[in-house]
Specification:
- This protein has helices at about 1-35, 40-50, 120-125; strands at about 55-65, 70-75, 80-90, 95, 100, 105-110, 110-115, 135-140, 145, 160, 170-175, 190, 200, 210-215, 220-225, 235-240, 250-255, 265-270, 275, 280-285, 285-290, 295, 305-310, 320-325, 325-330, 350-355, 360, 370, 380.
- The chain is mainly beta.
- Strands 1, 2, 3, 28 and 29 form a five-stranded antiparallel β-sheet that branches. A four-stranded antiparallel β-sheet has the order 5-6-8-9, with no helix packed on it. A four-stranded antiparallel β-sheet has the order 10-11-12-13, with no helix packed on it.
- The longest helix is centred in the N-terminal third of the chain and has 34 residues, at about 1-35.
């Protein structure tokens, strides 16, 4: 019967699409983009696989054509390579904030309040300290919401890493380093987002502001670089070597990087290596140069740093995330004169493919309502 033949043909097409989706998954992000041009089935299968990946999100200050400078977040569609407006907040514009993904939402903590160009600085901040303790959450597709402020006070240039747990009401975040109350940039706090309560944790071995940090595949937390005395140093937060599974975690020094890196970014690659990218190579406080160099360290036995290919664009203070055996970076500044994004409607972005061991430029256009990304990205996440 004709209907049976049609059903059989439809099943074969669907099976072919599913096969291409599996091939795309095995090919990684860059390989999947190349599969889009093979045939219609490969395009459909690849798009399906790409749609299952988390979106690359960066947050910072943008210039909206109708509103002017606002704090907002942009989300990169990995299938179309188009930036989408994820949400914005007109209540407060900050820089130097920390952000991370918690239970599918973007959480922004602290930062220094930027006065609105058309308002008095004191009025804009409601008289509060320029370094704020505010916490804001951006649920996907919803308006941003304010959460309880940090009990540890205002903080900027810190790094936030989500804690993998399910018992708290709104999630927990590990807040590392940064400039906060008492100018203690070795402080580490476990933040309960429902209450804002900050519980002190073992302090960093080195003072760090605007540094690279990420959670390793085994749950440990790795930090490297930053302003103050942590430029070349690196350390890892975890249980003691050969210790009991319930032993108290602490910080252990790692070998130093090949170069000093302030305002660098880091992520964990698919093979478990911790990669540190770019940053300001500081010769002195009077001379700062953005770096395009990258390096990675194997954590554990045989720990050592090895060079990675350099990015096309030297950059610091940029957005960075690892996904599908690739590293995506976007935006940033050159440490001295300002943002690296001088292309108007485009955001400078590139992707590192672990299999190819090379960086590729990534075309990406801003949403139509935005004139430019007017400052470097203060944070990024996968959502």
């Amino acid at each position: 019967p004709r209907s049976a033949a049609v059903d059989w043909a439809a099943q074969q097409v669907l099976a072919l699409v599913e096969i291409w989706a599996l091939i795309a998954e095995c090919s990684g992000l860059v390989g999947a983009w190349r599969l889009m041009t093979v045939c219609k089935a490969s395009q459909a299968g690849t798009k399906h696989w790409l749609s299952t990946l988390p979106r690359f999100v960066m947050c910072g200050v943008t210039n909206h054509l109708e509103v002017g400078p606002i704090f907002g977040s942009m989300r990169l569609d990995l299938a179309t390579l188009q930036w989408e407006d994820m949400g914005s907040s007109l209540d407060c514009i900050t820089s130097g904030h920390a952000c991370c993904a918690v239970r599918g939402a973007l959480v922004v903590l602290g930062g220094e309040i930027i006065p609105h160009p058309e308002a008095d600085a004191e009025d804009w901040s409601d008289g509060e300290d320029p370094v704020t303790s505010r916490v804001e959450i951006f649920p996907p597709g919803e308006e941003s919401e304010s959460l309880p402020s940090l009990s540890c006070g205002g903080i900027e240039m810190a790094v936030a890493i989500a804690v993998e747990e399910s018992v708290s009401m709104a999630g927990q975040v590990l807040l590392l380093g940064g400039a906060g109350a008492g100018d203690d940039d070795t402080a580490v706090h476990l933040v309960d987002l429902f209450s804002g309560v900050c519980t002190p944790q073992p302090a960093l071995l080195n003072s760090r502001r605007s540094f690279a940090a990420a959670r390793a595949l085994d749950g440990r937390v790795v930090c490297a670089g930053g302003w103050r005395d942590g430029l070349r140093t690196a350390e890892v937060f975890g249980p003691p070597i050969n210790g009991a599974s319930d032993a108290v975690w602490g910080w252990t020094a790692l070998s130093a990087m090949s170069a000093g890196r302030a305002d660098c970014r880091g992520c964990v690659m698919s093979d478990g290596r911790f990669a540190v990218l770019g940053g300001c190579d500081v010769d002195s406080m009077d001379h700062m140069v953005a770096s395009a160099s990258c390096e990675a360290v194997v954590i554990g036995e045989g720990e050592h740093w090895t060079p990675l290919p350099s990015m096309h664009q030297a950059r610091a203070g940029f957005a960075c995330a690892a996904v599908a055996r690739c590293i995506i970076v976007a935006d940033g500044n050159d440490c001295e004169s300002g943002p690296v994004n001088d292309a108007g409607e485009f955001i400078t972005a590139e992707v590192y493919d672990e299999g190819l061991n090379r960086w590729l430029r990534l075309p990406s256009r801003l949403p139509e309502d935005y004139d430019s990304w007017v400052t470097y990205a203060d944070g990024s996440a996968l959502i």
